[in-house]
Amino acid sequence: MTKPLRRVLVTVTLLLAALTAGWTQAAAAPVAVDAECLGSFSRAFTPPITTTPQTVTATATYTYGTCLVGPTATSTVVNSATLSCVPVVPGIPPETEVVTWLDGTGDTTTVTWSNSTVVGQTVVLTGAVTAGRHLGDSATKVTSGTSYLGSVVGCLLGTPISNTTGLVDSFLLTS
Fold first, then answer.
1. CA dist., res. 153 & res. 175, Å (int)
2. Tens digits of per-residue pLDDT, 52-69?
3. pTM for this prediction
4. Of 3, 48, 94, 173, whose CB count within 10 A is highest?
């Protein structure tokens, strides 16, 4: 499956899930999509990841450069976890992401990511907007690590992992 087709399928699936989750039999209230974006990320590890498990600080920079709903945006997230070459991406600990919208307003959105599911190189995060623009919205983000596999092989052969890159397949805020 091609990456563009995968992105479309992930986006459609998340949108349908968000829309159907907002409906109840007693009161059918539509779900509003406040932001829906795709993009990329880079993550730097300090110290670099090795074959020995150690506490590592990961600094991720997200660029939400293609938005179907809402303006483009950027953010940086810093967290710490015990990592080694395998698995290079554990379940991500709860973290807070401050998204800066690039529409000239200076507005931000604070998302508290409370849950993550990791399958291979794909991570699905769920959370809520806890401050700023779209306060109270539900948040979902799906990322795919594009450099992880090569990084892991190199790490197992003795080359520490100092950074990785990937795609944001979906960043979705719904109310």
1. 42
2. 999 999 999 999 999 999
3. 0.79
4. 173
Asked if 137 contacts 114 with a C-beta cutoff of 8 angstroms, the reply is: no
Judged by DSSP in three states, 103 sits in: coil
Query: What distance in Å separates the CA atoms of residue 50 and residue 156, rounded to the nearest whole number?
Result: 8
Q: Which amino acid, residue 40?
A: S
CA distances from 124 to 7, 49, 89, 164 (A): 13, 22, 12, 17
Residue 118 to residue 165: CA distance in whole angstroms: 16
Environment class of 143 (CB within 10 Å of its CB; exposed 0-12, middle 13-18, buried 19+):
buried
pLDDT of residue 94: 79
